[in-house]
Write a structure and sequence with these properties.
Layout: E1 2-3, E2 7-8, E3 11-12, H1 15-30, H2 35-42, H3 46-53, H4 61-71, H5 76-94, H6 106-117, E4 120-125, H7 136-144, H8 150-153, H9 157-167, E5 178-184, H10 185-189, H11 195-209, E6 214-219, E7 233-237, E8 246-251, E9 254-259, H12 261-277, H13 281-293
Parallel strand pairs: 4-5, 5-6
Antiparallel strand pairs: 1-9, 2-3, 4-7, 7-8, 8-9
Helix pairs in contact: 1-5, 2-3, 4-5, 7-9, 11-13
Length: 295
């Protein structure tokens, strides 16, 4: 299921809520039941069931258990995954995080909130250094270039830099994020800013590559063409990878979510193909050292 972030009045349909709703719809459909059947099981209206399935409202654990019973779902792993997704969505809805202090807009506001509760993120980036790995100088250089979007331009430069650095705190501390990123070699040879900014960014990548929770690979020119070169994406996980994945896809004038199902599975497979054709961690680190010597 591929969607943007819809709103209705002051309410927002969250990506996590839609991900959970999509799973419940699939289970209901497989059982040959309607929203009316679900409403009766919950002693609720069909309107409430529709809102639950579309991600407009949080879902309580007793409702999930009741729906699983109705749909004939008894696998503890499946039920546990739904309960965990519902829990993370409820926490996400009520959370007040650092992002509330910055003028983040639209899908990006939702993305950074999801990033704050994720357990793992896999990033494929064809054009730029991934945001979680960028230095302040790299960010400022991007802001001075002509590639910034209208939404980015509305945010003051130093606020934008501060927001980017705040995101990076998830890489450290007790609840550190597991990050696996693959960067196309072109992004490592086409830096914004001068030589000083380039050296600093390459040093930062080398430093972060030594952390146990961060994996950095390079997709080299020698790997040839690949379908993945069509665009960058982030796969956000909230349990073990693949269990509750949501994919964030960014294009020049649009962003979208791919929430579970065959769509997310296709991106999982694509990321695995990209990593297999990329340099391993040691080879990637060697390339970073080689590039650093050129500046």
């Amino acid at each position: 299921m591929t969607v943007s972030q819809p709103t209705q009045g002051n309410s927002t349909s969250t990506a996590l809520g839609r991900r959970l709703g999509g799973e419940l719809i699939a289970l209901r459909t497989a059982a040959g039941l309607t929203q009316t059947h679900a409403a009766k099981a919950l002693c609720a209206s069909t309107t409430k069931v529709a809102k639950m399935e579309r991600g407009w409202v949080p879902i309580r654990d007793p409702d999930i258990r009741a729906l699983c019973e109705l749909y004939g779902v008894h696998d503890p792993r499946t039920i546990g995954g739904l309960l965990e997704l519902a829990r993370v969505d409820r926490e996400r809805r009520k959370a007040k995080g650092w992002w509330d202090d910055y003028a983040l807009h639209g899908v990006m506001q939702e993305y950074v909130a999801l990033e704050s509760v994720a357990t793992a993120i896999r990033v494929w980036q064809t054009a730029f250094i991934p945001g979680l790995l960028q230095t302040p100088e790299y960010v400022r250089s991007l802001r001075k270039s002509s590639i910034v979007s209208a939404a980015m331009a509305r945010q003051p430069d130093e606020d934008f830099v501060a927001a980017r650095l705040a995101r990076q705190q998830r890489l450290f501390g007790q609840s550190e994020l597991s990050l696996h990123t693959v960067i196309y070699e072109a992004a490592l040879r086409n830096f914004p800013g001068g030589a000083g900014a380039t050296r600093g960014q390459l040093d930062r990548l080398t430093e972060l590559a030594s952390l146990p929770n961060i994996t950095i690979q390079v997709f080299p020119f020698g790997a040839g063409t690949h379908f993945g070169l069509n665009g960058s994406f982030n796969i956000v996980s909230f349990a073990e990878p693949g269990a509750m994945d949501i994919v964030y896809v960014e294009a020049p004038f649009a962003q979208r979510w791919v929430e579970g199902g065959d769509g997310a599975a296709a991106y999982d497979e694509l990321f695995e193909e990209i990593t297999e054709r990329s340099f391993g961690e040691r080879e990637s680190l060697s390339l970073l050292h080689k590039l650093r010597k050129e500046f």
